[in-house]
Amino acid sequence: MVQKMKINNGHNSTVLYIGVDEAGRGPLIGDMVVAGVLSAGSKLKELEKEGLVESKQLNAEARASFYRKAIKYGIVVIAVYVSPWRIDNENLNKLEEEQIKWILKVFSKIVPGVRVDEIKVFIDEVKGSARKIESAARELFSKYKLVFKMEPEADDKYSPVALASIFAKVMRDRNLDVLRKLYGDFGSGYSADPITVNWVKMNYRPSIKPPLFIRRSWRNLKDIAPEWYVEKKVEIKKHRSLLDFTKR
Protein backbone atom coordinates (compact mmCIF):
# COMPACT_ATOMS: atom_id res chain seq x y z
CA MET A 1 0.00 0.00 0.00
CA VAL A 2 1.41 3.38 -0.97
CA GLN A 3 2.03 5.39 2.17
CA LYS A 4 0.07 8.60 2.62
CA MET A 5 2.51 11.40 1.98
CA LYS A 6 2.58 14.61 3.97
CA ILE A 7 1.57 17.08 1.29
CA ASN A 8 2.26 20.74 2.03
CA ASN A 9 -0.54 22.85 0.63
CA GLY A 10 0.25 25.98 2.62
CA HIS A 11 0.06 29.42 1.02
CA ASN A 12 3.63 30.30 1.97
CA SER A 13 5.32 27.31 0.39
CA THR A 14 5.00 25.46 -2.91
CA VAL A 15 6.24 21.87 -3.12
CA LEU A 16 6.67 19.83 -6.29
CA TYR A 17 6.98 16.05 -6.30
CA ILE A 18 9.04 13.94 -8.70
CA GLY A 19 8.76 10.17 -8.98
CA VAL A 20 10.75 7.83 -11.23
CA ASP A 21 10.38 4.11 -11.91
CA GLU A 22 10.87 1.59 -14.72
CA ALA A 23 9.05 -1.29 -16.35
CA GLY A 24 10.65 -4.14 -18.25
CA ARG A 25 14.11 -4.70 -16.77
CA GLY A 26 13.81 -8.47 -16.89
CA PRO A 27 11.79 -9.63 -19.93
CA LEU A 28 13.22 -11.42 -22.93
CA ILE A 29 11.10 -9.30 -25.27
CA GLY A 30 10.65 -5.55 -25.62
CA ASP A 31 12.08 -2.23 -24.46
CA MET A 32 12.70 -1.17 -20.90
CA VAL A 33 10.70 1.98 -20.18
CA VAL A 34 11.86 4.49 -17.57
CA ALA A 35 9.18 7.01 -16.63
CA GLY A 36 9.20 10.14 -14.50
CA VAL A 37 6.33 12.24 -13.21
CA LEU A 38 6.33 15.83 -11.96
CA SER A 39 3.31 16.89 -9.95
CA ALA A 40 1.88 19.28 -7.42
CA GLY A 41 0.90 17.65 -4.15
CA SER A 42 -2.80 18.40 -4.57
CA LYS A 43 -2.98 16.26 -7.74
CA LEU A 44 -1.28 13.33 -6.04
CA LYS A 45 -3.69 13.65 -3.12
CA GLU A 46 -6.63 13.31 -5.50
CA LEU A 47 -5.15 10.17 -7.04
CA GLU A 48 -4.41 8.72 -3.60
CA LYS A 49 -8.06 9.18 -2.65
CA GLU A 50 -8.99 7.18 -5.75
CA GLY A 51 -6.79 4.27 -4.68
CA LEU A 52 -3.44 4.96 -6.30
CA VAL A 53 -1.02 2.04 -5.77
CA GLU A 54 1.98 0.72 -7.70
CA SER A 55 1.33 -0.86 -11.08
CA LYS A 56 1.71 -4.54 -10.12
CA GLN A 57 -1.29 -4.27 -7.78
CA LEU A 58 -3.56 -3.01 -10.57
CA ASN A 59 -5.05 -4.69 -13.60
CA ALA A 60 -4.63 -3.22 -17.09
CA GLU A 61 -7.95 -1.36 -16.94
CA ALA A 62 -7.13 0.31 -13.61
CA ARG A 63 -3.66 1.30 -14.81
CA ALA A 64 -5.13 2.87 -17.94
CA SER A 65 -7.64 4.77 -15.79
CA PHE A 66 -4.91 6.32 -13.60
CA TYR A 67 -2.89 7.06 -16.74
CA ARG A 68 -5.78 9.07 -18.21
CA LYS A 69 -6.61 10.82 -14.93
CA ALA A 70 -3.02 11.92 -14.37
CA ILE A 71 -2.85 13.45 -17.84
CA LYS A 72 -6.21 15.13 -17.27
CA TYR A 73 -4.87 16.63 -14.02
CA GLY A 74 -1.93 18.14 -15.92
CA ILE A 75 0.75 15.96 -14.32
CA VAL A 76 3.94 16.16 -16.39
CA VAL A 77 5.26 12.82 -17.64
CA ILE A 78 8.52 11.92 -19.37
CA ALA A 79 9.25 8.40 -20.61
CA VAL A 80 12.39 6.96 -22.16
CA TYR A 81 12.42 3.73 -24.16
CA VAL A 82 15.64 1.70 -23.88
CA SER A 83 15.99 -0.73 -26.78
CA PRO A 84 17.03 -4.40 -26.49
CA TRP A 85 20.12 -3.57 -28.58
CA ARG A 86 21.36 -1.14 -25.93
CA ILE A 87 20.47 -3.56 -23.14
CA ASP A 88 22.51 -6.24 -24.92
CA ASN A 89 25.55 -3.98 -25.23
CA GLU A 90 25.59 -1.89 -22.05
CA ASN A 91 25.37 -2.34 -18.30
CA LEU A 92 21.70 -2.32 -17.37
CA ASN A 93 22.10 -0.39 -14.11
CA LYS A 94 24.24 2.25 -15.83
CA LEU A 95 21.67 2.51 -18.60
CA GLU A 96 18.86 3.11 -16.13
CA GLU A 97 20.98 5.60 -14.20
CA GLU A 98 21.61 7.51 -17.42
CA GLN A 99 17.90 7.70 -18.25
CA ILE A 100 16.98 8.85 -14.75
CA LYS A 101 19.54 11.65 -14.87
CA TRP A 102 18.18 12.73 -18.25
CA ILE A 103 14.60 12.79 -16.93
CA LEU A 104 15.68 14.89 -13.95
CA LYS A 105 17.52 17.25 -16.29
CA VAL A 106 14.38 17.80 -18.38
CA PHE A 107 12.32 18.41 -15.26
CA SER A 108 14.91 20.97 -14.12
CA LYS A 109 14.16 22.96 -17.28
CA ILE A 110 10.43 22.95 -16.48
CA VAL A 111 10.56 23.84 -12.79
CA PRO A 112 11.81 27.47 -13.21
CA GLY A 113 8.48 28.29 -14.89
CA VAL A 114 6.66 27.49 -11.66
CA ARG A 115 6.88 29.18 -8.26
CA VAL A 116 8.62 26.50 -6.20
CA ASP A 117 10.14 26.49 -2.72
CA GLU A 118 10.83 22.79 -2.29
CA ILE A 119 11.24 19.73 -4.52
CA LYS A 120 10.85 16.17 -3.28
CA VAL A 121 12.38 13.44 -5.44
CA PHE A 122 11.51 9.76 -4.96
CA ILE A 123 13.13 7.05 -7.11
CA ASP A 124 12.95 3.28 -7.11
CA GLU A 125 16.38 1.87 -6.30
CA VAL A 126 19.00 1.30 -8.99
CA LYS A 127 21.80 -0.64 -7.32
CA GLY A 128 25.07 1.25 -7.08
CA SER A 129 23.64 4.48 -8.49
CA ALA A 130 22.08 6.29 -5.54
CA ARG A 131 24.99 8.65 -4.81
CA LYS A 132 25.51 9.60 -8.46
CA ILE A 133 21.83 10.25 -9.09
CA GLU A 134 21.45 12.23 -5.86
CA SER A 135 24.51 14.30 -6.74
CA ALA A 136 23.04 15.04 -10.17
CA ALA A 137 19.68 15.95 -8.64
CA ARG A 138 21.23 18.33 -6.11
CA GLU A 139 23.21 20.04 -8.85
CA LEU A 140 20.19 20.35 -11.16
CA PHE A 141 17.92 21.68 -8.41
CA SER A 142 20.54 23.62 -6.46
CA LYS A 143 18.28 26.69 -6.19
CA TYR A 144 15.63 24.83 -4.22
CA LYS A 145 15.31 22.98 -0.96
CA LEU A 146 15.59 19.34 -2.02
CA VAL A 147 14.46 16.11 -0.41
CA PHE A 148 15.92 13.05 -2.16
CA LYS A 149 15.05 9.41 -1.51
CA MET A 150 16.06 6.39 -3.57
CA GLU A 151 14.90 3.18 -1.92
CA PRO A 152 14.06 -0.44 -2.78
CA GLU A 153 10.33 -0.87 -3.51
CA ALA A 154 9.81 2.88 -3.54
CA ASP A 155 6.82 2.30 -5.82
CA ASP A 156 5.11 0.62 -2.87
CA LYS A 157 5.97 3.48 -0.48
CA TYR A 158 5.61 6.79 -2.30
CA SER A 159 2.74 7.88 -4.54
CA PRO A 160 4.91 9.75 -7.12
CA VAL A 161 6.86 6.53 -7.75
CA ALA A 162 3.66 4.47 -7.82
CA LEU A 163 2.32 6.78 -10.52
CA ALA A 164 5.61 6.60 -12.46
CA SER A 165 5.42 2.81 -12.32
CA ILE A 166 1.93 2.95 -13.86
CA PHE A 167 3.08 5.18 -16.72
CA ALA A 168 6.11 2.98 -17.41
CA LYS A 169 3.99 -0.17 -17.43
CA VAL A 170 1.19 1.26 -19.60
CA MET A 171 3.61 2.71 -22.15
CA ARG A 172 5.62 -0.51 -22.38
CA ASP A 173 2.44 -2.60 -22.74
CA ARG A 174 1.16 -0.40 -25.54
CA ASN A 175 4.33 -1.09 -27.50
CA LEU A 176 3.95 -4.81 -26.87
CA ASP A 177 0.35 -4.71 -28.10
CA VAL A 178 1.56 -3.36 -31.44
CA LEU A 179 4.28 -6.02 -31.67
CA ARG A 180 1.76 -8.79 -30.96
CA LYS A 181 -0.42 -7.60 -33.83
CA LEU A 182 2.57 -7.76 -36.15
CA TYR A 183 4.29 -10.93 -34.89
CA GLY A 184 1.62 -12.95 -33.11
CA ASP A 185 0.95 -13.70 -29.46
CA PHE A 186 4.25 -14.05 -27.60
CA GLY A 187 2.61 -13.86 -24.17
CA SER A 188 4.03 -11.60 -21.50
CA GLY A 189 7.50 -11.50 -23.02
CA TYR A 190 9.10 -13.04 -19.92
CA SER A 191 11.23 -16.15 -20.35
CA ALA A 192 9.32 -17.90 -17.53
CA ASP A 193 6.13 -17.62 -19.60
CA PRO A 194 5.51 -20.87 -21.57
CA ILE A 195 3.72 -18.87 -24.29
CA THR A 196 6.80 -16.69 -24.76
CA VAL A 197 9.16 -19.68 -24.83
CA ASN A 198 6.95 -21.53 -27.31
CA TRP A 199 6.74 -18.43 -29.56
CA VAL A 200 10.54 -18.17 -29.67
CA LYS A 201 10.89 -21.88 -30.51
CA MET A 202 8.27 -21.65 -33.26
CA ASN A 203 9.93 -18.60 -34.85
CA TYR A 204 13.53 -19.63 -34.39
CA ARG A 205 15.54 -20.03 -37.59
CA PRO A 206 19.31 -20.44 -37.08
CA SER A 207 20.13 -18.77 -40.38
CA ILE A 208 17.91 -15.73 -39.79
CA LYS A 209 18.57 -12.94 -37.32
CA PRO A 210 15.94 -12.53 -34.59
CA PRO A 211 13.48 -9.63 -34.50
CA LEU A 212 15.02 -6.46 -33.03
CA PHE A 213 12.73 -6.57 -30.00
CA ILE A 214 14.40 -9.72 -28.60
CA ARG A 215 17.16 -9.35 -26.00
CA ARG A 216 19.86 -11.58 -27.40
CA SER A 217 22.14 -11.52 -24.33
CA TRP A 218 19.60 -13.21 -22.02
CA ARG A 219 21.15 -16.56 -21.05
CA ASN A 220 17.92 -18.55 -21.26
CA LEU A 221 17.80 -17.70 -24.98
CA LYS A 222 20.92 -19.86 -25.37
CA ASP A 223 18.88 -22.96 -24.55
CA ILE A 224 15.87 -22.31 -26.77
CA ALA A 225 17.44 -20.41 -29.70
CA PRO A 226 21.24 -20.86 -29.48
CA GLU A 227 22.14 -19.08 -32.74
CA TRP A 228 20.21 -16.01 -31.63
CA TYR A 229 22.12 -15.77 -28.36
CA VAL A 230 25.07 -13.38 -28.10
CA GLU A 231 27.29 -13.05 -25.09
CA LYS A 232 27.05 -9.68 -23.45
CA LYS A 233 30.32 -7.79 -23.62
CA VAL A 234 30.17 -4.47 -21.87
CA GLU A 235 32.96 -2.16 -22.97
CA ILE A 236 34.89 -0.64 -20.10
CA LYS A 237 35.70 2.93 -21.05
CA LYS A 238 39.23 3.90 -20.10
CA HIS A 239 39.77 7.53 -19.20
CA ARG A 240 42.57 8.96 -21.30
CA SER A 241 45.14 11.49 -20.16
CA LEU A 242 47.03 14.09 -22.18
CA LEU A 243 49.99 11.69 -22.34
CA ASP A 244 47.93 9.25 -24.39
CA PHE A 245 47.62 11.84 -27.17
CA THR A 246 51.38 12.58 -27.18
CA LYS A 247 52.23 8.93 -27.89
CA ARG A 248 50.90 9.07 -31.46
Give an overview in words:
This protein has helices at residues 41-49, 60-72, 84-89, 92-110, 130-140, 159-183, 194-203, 221-224, 242-246, and strands at residues 15-23, 32-40, 76-82, 118-124, 145-151. With 248 residues, the protein is α/β, with parallel strands linked by helices. The chain folds into 2 domains: 15-178, Ribonuclease H-like superfamily/Ribonuclease H (Nucleotidyltransferase, domain 5, 2-Layer Sandwich); 184-224, Orthogonal Bundle (Arc Repressor Mutant, subunit A), CATH 1.10.10. Strands 3-2-1-4-5 form a 5-stranded mixed sheet. Strand 4 (118-124), helix 5 and strand 5 (145-151) form a beta-alpha-beta unit. The protein is globular and about 60 Å long. It starts with 14 loop residues before the first strand and ends with a helix.
Task: Offer a concise description of the structure.
The protein is an alpha/beta fold. It has helices at 41-49, 60-72, 84-89, 92-110, 130-140, 159-183, 194-203, 221-224, 242-246; strands spanning 15-23, 32-40, 76-82, 118-124, 145-151. The protein is built from 9 helices and 5 strands.
